[in-house]
UniProtKB/TrEMBL annotation:
<comment type="similarity">
    <text>Belongs to the 3-hydroxybenzoate 6-hydroxylase family.</text>
</comment>
<dbReference type="InterPro" id="IPR044560">
    <property type="entry name" value="MOase"/>
</dbReference>
<feature type="domain" description="FAD-binding">
    <location>
        <begin position="6"/>
        <end position="66"/>
    </location>
</feature>
<dbReference type="Pfam" id="PF01494">
    <property type="entry name" value="FAD_binding_3"/>
</dbReference>
<dbReference type="GO" id="GO:0071949">
    <property type="term" value="F:FAD binding"/>
</dbReference>
<dbReference type="InterPro" id="IPR002938">
    <property type="entry name" value="FAD-bd"/>
</dbReference>
<dbReference type="InterPro" id="IPR036188">
    <property type="entry name" value="FAD/NAD-bd_sf"/>
</dbReference>
<keyword id="KW-0560">Oxidoreductase</keyword>
<dbReference type="GO" id="GO:0004497">
    <property type="term" value="F:monooxygenase activity"/>
</dbReference>
<keyword id="KW-0503">Monooxygenase</keyword>
<protein>
    <recommendedName>
        <fullName>FAD-binding domain-containing protein</fullName>
    </recommendedName>
</protein>
Length: 74
């Protein structure tokens, strides 16, 4: 049985993009909408808790990020 789904994701932040990647891997196409016209290189910081890293690892992209960004340790 083939399941066809149309999904719209509002926001191209880490959660929206990770959701789009996960859906694509199971065969569901998603449209990602973002109000910003382009990428910003300043003005934002992102904190990821351990569960977020587990989710990114499950998507196969945690290593790519952790090799570029150093973890913040108190």
């Amino acid at each position: 049985m083939e399941v066809v789904a149309n999904v719209v994701i509002v926001g191209a932040g880490i959660a929206g993009l990770a959701t789009a990647v996960a859906l694509k891997r199971v065969g569901i196409e998603a449209l990602v909408l973002e109000r910003s016209e382009g990428l910003r290189t300043t003005g934002a910081a992102l904190t990821l808790f351990p569960n977020a890293w587990l989710a990114l690892d499950a998507l196969g992209i945690a290593q790519k990020l952790s090799s570029i960004y150093n973890p913040f340790n108190k």
